[in-house]
């Protein structure tokens, strides 16, 4: 067991490593690989020198006491800085290797013929396939440039922005070798405040290009089983589950638990699981991997005791630990070797190695050692909620143990006791007591996990299930101890799958009833950093074995996280966010007491749209609910594609649009009306005016763009004009009508199409800034080069969504607004303005001022 002094120094060194990795993750741009290598070499030399001096000065000290220097000599500080520098440099060197694989800009948007293997379990959706494609080395050289070795591809048909036009979709299977024509682009995703960082997701997995399969020339299947044997096995199991289980929803859950195919779970079922707080059970998480390690350890221990020779070769506890680790690693591989499963395997391997070495470290030191190993292998794990939730769950359970247990080090896992050949009456009488003790222990664990992890859940996801305690109390033992083992054992005995499906069906019915209860989910806005820190401290206090008078301090500490302050503009002013939704328009505007949403972005595919992926999470994170007015400019899908998700997920009090009567979005909605020129209102001292379309236009057969609602907002000396997809004729009509067009900011008409932004209209509006909401490398070429030239000629600042991400215009911020890509710049983020690789210096998203 580490001494107090040595344990503290080891903890400081481990913390230094993690801090160095965390500092590297804040870099807006990468250094050169040589710079990181030089820093790493210097850190190793400096750390080695500190270690040698420490060993010489510690004289007769033994073991770990010789490894770290005493602080009074100052060499401990030197060694700590060296370790932090090593963490920073090693992570940076890894990152340069990943960034160096990025697709060359010159190859974007070109049709490229390549050979390769379907290297992952293909994910089938309503629009087609998503899969990883490993390119044959012979296909990687194109015009003297190298393609990335691993691509993230889609093969679509029907309703999808990247759909192939003519050819039907094949029955894609893992391991197939294909010759396909693809159109690629550098990894680029939408970037919004508090949103999912898709570019980090791709970077962490080494996927340095995305794209889709073209249907001309026709793809050719070269071999049916040319590689990816594990993925072929996973696909065979998934197909067998769906062939055996009649209920496709239950089959989807079993496929997710057995082989990690989360796409097999229906979207509605995912919503139920999230609302009841059990979504973590339906993905291959640390809980499942650890459970398999524990069960396997019990089994190995029972078998090992039957062989005296084996026990002489290796002690039973060690055999159980290594056997459990091996089975857990095998399950993680079979489940797709996802990043969360990898992290858990590395954690278990660290603990097993420490135990094998006879090191009885305090539980905090064991967790820190596991964190060092995980971040050495995957530096980007520090940015994932799953990393913190996993470590916090273990830490909270350890912290809640009695003080005596903590003082003596981590509690040992009880060794399995071989069953007695017979049960005495006293043995029978002990079973109820054992069951009661187990139930009390499980209840205590669930209380600690629920109370302790709720603040962390609010920090990461801004919502918590109020029925989650009851749901998890039933779901955790059912899923971890019954459904998941049955799903895995069904690979050998397929008739176990219907039994598991029957349990899943009953569980799903109960969860659905809980999710339908009023107030099942409590949602809060994003809290400020100080409130998040106070809430996390409250969670630690409430589960620690401390006197109640100290635990009561948790209540005031948690209040700011549970009911966070919501920043709102003062009377007479407004804030605005032009969301990054790809090819489409979506603008969020709030005054002191009201919220308006202008358009809702596109529908990306049958199962995905901008409302569900971007707007609902963003509005909730900002605390912008209810929505007082949803204005839908016209019927085009890139403006109303996300509307249904808003109507289903949020309280929308009124709708104004130019949609025709009978449109599906308006059916049965008494709160829907038209937007007509001349409508005016004032919210909290901010003036709103609808400038288009005239009432008479509703009686004419006009195309949707011509019917776009145009809204001008003015308050606090600032004004903005939102234009939908109006074209030259409507622009001219607005200029001729004498409407008050002059505005500080213009949301560019029709995304910068050649049919809009006429010179006379730009002169009448005379904006200081124009915002173009368009998709990266969109098929329409928006914004057009000649249109941008017209804006530049007038000295108008240009903001484009690919280069900017979400654009925020605050009442107390700069007149030119601020871009999310500049505010949160990290080296893995794509430079949408220049098309350069992640980590390269970025040209500003505004120009022409």
Describe the 3D structure.
The protein is α+β, with helices and mostly antiparallel strands and 849 residues long. It folds into five domains: 96 residues, no CATH class; 123 residues, OB fold (Dihydrolipoamide Acetyltransferase, E2P) (Beta Barrel), CATH 2.40.50; 261 residues, no CATH class; 36 residues, no CATH class; 240 residues, Ribonuclease Z/Hydroxyacylglutathione hydrolase-like (Metallo-beta-lactamase, Chain A, 4-Layer Sandwich). 45% of the residues lie in helices and 14% in strands. The protein is built from 29 helices and 28 strands. The chain has an eight-stranded mixed beta sheet with strand order 19-18-17-14-13-12-27-28. Strands 20-21-22-23-24-25-26 form a seven-stranded mixed beta sheet. Strand 4 and strand 5 form a beta hairpin. The protein is globular. The termini are far apart. The C terminus is likely disordered.
Number of domains: 5
Physical arrangement of strands within the biggest beta sheet: 19-18-17-14-13-12-27-28
Q: How many H/I helices? A: 29
Radius of gyration (CA) equals 30 Å
Largest sheet: 8 strands, mixed
Distance between the termini: 65 Å
Give the averaged pLDDT, no decimals. Answer: 87
Strand content: 5-15%
Cα shape: globular
The quaternary state of the protein chains shown equals: single chain
Helix content: 40-55%
Total strands: 28
Task: Reconstruct the topology from this structure.
Blueprint: H1 4-24, H2 33-57, H3 75-99, E1 111-118, E2 123-125, E3 128-135, E4 141-142, E5 145-146, E6 150-156, E7 177-185, H4 198-204, E8 210-214, E9 220-223, H5 229-244, H6 248-259, H7 267-275, H8 279-282, H9 286-304, H10 308-313, H11 316-334, H12 339-356, H13 363-377, H14 385-399, H15 403-407, H16 425-461, E10 463-465, H17 468-489, H18 496-515, E11 521-523, H19 529-543, H20 548-551, H21 554-562, E12 575-578, E13 587-590, E14 595-598, E15 603-605, E16 608-609, H22 610-622, E17 629-632, H23 637-640, H24 643-649, E18 655-657, E19 672-674, E20 680-683, E21 686-692, E22 710-715, E23 718-722, H25 728-737, E24 745-747, H26 759-765, E25 769-772, H27 785-793, E26 797-800, H28 801-804, E27 807-809, E28 818-819, H29 820-823
Parallel strand pairs: 6-8, 14-17, 17-18, 18-19, 23-24, 24-25, 25-26
Antiparallel strand pairs: 1-3, 1-7, 2-3, 3-6, 4-5, 7-8, 7-9, 10-11, 12-13, 12-27, 13-14, 15-16, 20-21, 21-22, 22-23, 27-28
Helix pairs in contact: 1-3, 1-13, 2-3, 5-6, 6-17, 6-18, 7-18, 9-11, 9-12, 9-17, 11-12, 12-13, 13-14, 14-16, 16-17, 16-19, 17-18, 19-21, 22-24
